[in-house]
């Protein structure tokens, strides 16, 4: 501690880490302890990717690497970041392996490990009309068109096509989307996000309805009073409210349609004949069957907490993809 304080003073730091000294003028008590400084220093070196053999033998001077591990105390934030990065790498590997497994798959094999919004998408993959090498991970599945066919994502009668329902990058409504086990968790989290959105829109719709009723009462009173200016103002306000109500209802309709689409994908994935493994595919390990699922009631806080902590489950990069693609 004496040496540490001497060096700090030489650097011009106004620091006094020694609290009391002994009869020889040496440090007796200080604001830090040796063990704490070793823990902080070794942890900082480890998090800066100093090789463990150098950290243990040269920096710490330990006879065993296990002793060095004892001194490493990583923060919760650092552990969370490392695990999130690892989870993202696992997801990337899983989705890449999944995509590669589609190359040689027959239509029967495809139907055992892949779900699609339209069956003819699987037919085109099996017949090599769509090449898996060009598939693009959109966070909730794979886009066989490389994310460039949003303008024709809805099939109409008579062989005509129109943009994806809900707008570009709303992949869960696209006729081209294919998905499978690697995207089960992202799909579930996306559904949570959509449900949270519908609750917000529903609350806004209720608020607008109340304002509309109040505007109608004010319009009637202005009409009875013969106040032309106030009557005009009330009519304009009511018209604006009706327009916003109509827009909110349209958004609600779109979100409910998205929820239904996501639910259908999740349900189909859980019912896949190959769910749980096989054919060298990445397998989800769980202590319950995929078919054992349902919806539960929770608080608004729990729901928003799940939505806001989505990057913890999906990894930063993957969560940004989901945010870009239709949430």
From TrEMBL:
Coiled-coil segments: 203-251
Keywords assigned by UniProt, alphabetized: Coiled coil
Protein name: Phage integrase family protein
Species whose genome carries this gene: Donghicola tyrosinivorans
Source organism phylogeny: Bacteria, Pseudomonadati, Pseudomonadota, Alphaproteobacteria, Rhodobacterales
């Amino acid at each position: 501690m004496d040496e540490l304080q001497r060096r700090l003073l030489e650097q011009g730091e106004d620091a006094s880490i020694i609290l009391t000294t002994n009869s020889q003028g040496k440090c007796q008590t200080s604001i830090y302890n040796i063990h704490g400084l070793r823990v902080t220093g070794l942890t900082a070196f480890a998090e800066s990717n100093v090789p463990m053999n150098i950290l243990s033998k040269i920096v710490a001077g330990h006879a065993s690497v296990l002793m060095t591990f004892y001194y490493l105390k990583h923060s919760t934030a650092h552990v969370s970041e490392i695990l999130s990065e690892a989870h993202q790498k696992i997801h990337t590997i899983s989705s890449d392996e999944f995509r590669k497994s589609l190359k040689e798959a027959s239509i029967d094999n495809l139907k055992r490990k892949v779900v699609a919004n339209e069956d003819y998408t699987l037919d085109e993959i099996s017949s090599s009309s769509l090449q898996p090498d060009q598939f693009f991970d959109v966070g909730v599945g794979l886009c066989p068109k490389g994310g460039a066919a949003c303008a024709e994502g809805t099939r109409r009668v008579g062989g005509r096509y129109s943009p994806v329902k809900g707008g570009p990058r709303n992949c869960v409504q696209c006729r081209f989307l294919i998905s499978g086990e690697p995207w089960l968790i992202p799909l579930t989290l996306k559904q949570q996000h959509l449900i949270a959105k519908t609750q917000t829109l529903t609350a806004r719709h209720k608020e607008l309805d109340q304002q509309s009723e109040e505007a109608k009462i004010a319009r009637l009173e202005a009409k009875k009073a013969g106040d032309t200016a106030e009557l005009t103002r009330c009519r304009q306000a009511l018209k604006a409210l009706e327009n916003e109500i109509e827009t909110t209802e349209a958004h609600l309709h779109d979100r409910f349609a998205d929820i239904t689409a996501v639910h259908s994908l999740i349900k189909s994935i859980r019912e896949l004949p190959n769910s749980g493994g096989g054919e060298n595919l990445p397998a989800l390990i769980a202590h319950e069957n995929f078919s054992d699922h349902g919806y539960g009631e929770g608080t608004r806080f729990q729901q928003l907490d799940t939505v806001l902590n989505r990057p913890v489950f999906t990894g930063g990069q993957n969560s940004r993809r989901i945010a870009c693609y239709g949430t």
